[in-house]
Amino acid sequence: MSTVFDCSRPDGRESGLAAAANTVRAGGLVVLPTDTVYGIGADAFDSNAVAALLAAKGRGPDMPVPVLVGSWSTVDGLVMSVPQQARALIEAFWPGGLSIILPQAPSLSWNLGNTRGTVNLRMPLHPVALDLLREVGPMAVSSANRTGQPPASTAAEARDQLGDSVSVYLDGGPSGEPVPSTIVDLTGGTPRVLRLGAISAEELSEVLGVPVEPAS
Fold first, then answer.
1. Where does 3-208 sit in CATH, by number?
2. In this structure, what are the phi and psi dihedrals at residue 183, rounded to the nearest 5 degrees?
3. Among candidates 70, 74, 120, which has minimal Cα distance to 95?
4. Which of 46, 115, 176, 188 could be bridged to 64 by S-S, CB 3.0 to 4.6 A?
5. Does residue 122 sit in helix, strand or coil?
6. Is there a contact between 68 and 129 (Cβ–Cβ < 8 Å)?
7. How far is the C-alpha of 172 from the C-alpha of 53, rounded, in Å?
C-alpha cells in the first residue's frame, strides 16, 4: 500500500518528509515534486532500489537515472572533478532546471544504469524536494511516469501510473508546465547540449562565454 501526504499543510509536509526519508533509507521508492515534473526517487547508492525504480517505470538500464542533490557542495564528492565551466553553470542556474553530466568519481559504488562512467546531476528548485535531499543525501530520480506515457505534473497523475510500486507520494501541488530540465554534457572538450528545456542555449552561452549549440 502507498500513502499520499499533502505537503501544502505543515503537518502533512512534516509527516510526509519523515515517511519519505524512512522509505528511502529502507530501499523503497518515493514520488516527490520538483520544479519541472514529479519524480520517482530512490537512494542513489542502493542498487536494488534503483533497479526497482527502473522496473516501476518499465525501463531498462540503457537509459541511466539522473541524480538529484540538495546542495552545491554535494557535487564535489560525486564527480572526478568540477571544472570551471560546471561551477559557472551551477552558480548561475542551481537550484533550477539545468542538468549537468560529468565524469563520476571512480570510488563510487552505485549502479544507475549504463552511465559509461558519468553521472547526470541536478539541484531542483522545490522546497519539498530540497528538504528530502538534505535529509537523505543524493537520490536517483527519474520522471514519475511509466515509460512511453506523459510525465506527471501532479501526485495523482504519478499515482495513476505507478500505483503501489511507490510507498510514499509527496503531494506538493501541480508542477505547472511540464518543461524538462536542459541537459549539458561537460565530459568532453566543449559543452554539448543533449536536451533543451528550462534553460535556453542563449542563457548557457552567456554564462559560459562561448557559443553553445542547441540539441539537434
1. 3.90.870.10
2. -110, 125
3. 70
4. 115
5. strand
6. yes
7. 21
| Residues 30 and 167 sit within 8 Å (Cβ to Cβ) | yes
Q: Is omega for the bond preceding 174 within 30 degrees of 0, making it cis?
A: no
pLDDT classification of 216: cutoffs 50, 70, 90? low
Q: Report the distance separating Cα 114 and Cα 65, nearest Å.
A: 9
> What cell does 53 get?
525504480
- DSSP E strands in 97-181: the ranges are 98-103, 118-122, 139-143, 168-171
Indicate the SS3 state at residue 40. Answer: strand
Task: Provide the 8-state DSSP code for 117.
Answer: T
| 199 neighbors 212 (Cβ within 8 angstroms) | no
At 114, the pLDDT band (50, 70, 90 cuts) reads confident
DSSP state of 144: S
Sign of the four-CA dihedral 131, 42, 44, 175: negative
Specify whether the CB–CB gap between 161 and 59 falls below 8 A. Answer: no
Torsion 156-164-121-129 (CA) sign? positive
Please, are residues 104 and 78 in contact by the beta-carbon 8 Å criterion?
yes
On whether the CB atoms of residues 34 and 124 are closer than 8 A, the answer is: yes
The C-alpha atoms of residue 28 and residue 65 are separated, in whole angstroms, by 16
Read off the C-alpha cell for 185: 554534457
